[in-house]
Specification:
Elements lengths: L4 H10 L4 H16 L5 H32 L2 H7 L1 H17 L2 H29 L5 H22 L11 H5 L3 H10 L7 H7 L3 H4 L1
Helix pairs in contact: 1-6, 1-7, 2-3, 3-4, 3-6, 4-6, 5-6, 5-9, 6-7
Keywords: Membrane, Transmembrane, Transmembrane helix
Organism: Ramphastos sulfuratus
Membrane topology: Multi-pass membrane protein
């Protein structure tokens, strides 16, 4: 769940804290680039893109989760989900340094792809790996991971932690931490028995 459903919860809650700072960043960038202050409507529009493009990325990730989980297996598909997560963290973390609010929008799109992939494949992978007696309990871990991700996003967004003007790019790049943890730990996990038997026709590996 660390790199699966928790990424979804993290990105849902993490965007609330730096809203004021990001809107100021859009205003400053626009002024430096075009020599005039943007209207409040334009700032609201750009901010709306930053927030809502996550859902578009989530849709793209969800639509591709089925294909990737069958083509490469549940475990490899979960590992692939970390690529957009790390790309998103890099884009959002460097957006202020590069003076580009477009990088923020692109980063949110990629984080949505990661969330859509992770949430769907996590449920599949955990359910198929769990023993029959623990299948229901294991499926609930997706909800637990979402809640923990939301809590982590809320905690990191506090003013005493990263919720200040100087550190909001670091806050937005926080999704790299669960992605790196999963990249280091998931290769040691087994693949889904159902995938090995039905998709790969490898009975021995399944057993």
């Amino acid at each position: 769940g660390i790199g699966g459903a928790s990424q979804y919860g993290l990105q849902i809650s993490i965007i609330n804290s730096p809203a004021e700072y990001i809107q100021s960043f859009i205003r400053e960038t626009w002024l430096q680039r075009y020599g005039s202050s943007p209207s409040e409507d334009m700032i609201t529009l750009m901010w709306s893109f930053v927030v809502s493009i996550y859902s578009i990325g989530g849709l793209l990730g969800s639509l591709s989760a089925g294909y990737l989980s069958v083509r490469f297996g549940r475990k490899k598909a979960m590992l692939f989900a970390n690529i957009p997560a790390l790309l998103s963290a890099a884009l959002m973390g460097l957006s202020r340094l590069c003076g580009s609010f477009e990088m923020l929008i692109a980063g949110r799109l990629f984080s949505g792809v990661c969330g859509g992939l992770g949430l769907n494949i996590h449920l599949m992978y955990a359910g198929e790996c769990a023993p029959r007696k623990l299948r229901g309990l294991t499926a609930i871990t997706a909800s637990t991971a979402i809640a923990l991700g939301k809590f982590a996003g809320f905690a990191l967004g506090l003013r005493e932690v990263l919720g200040v003007d100087d550190l909001w790019p670091v806050l937005m790049a926080a999704s790299a931490i669960p992605a790196l943890i999963q990249l280091l730990t998931l290769p040691f996990f087994p693949d889904s028995p159902r995938y090995l038997l039905i998709d790969k026709k490898d009975k021995e590996a399944c057993i």
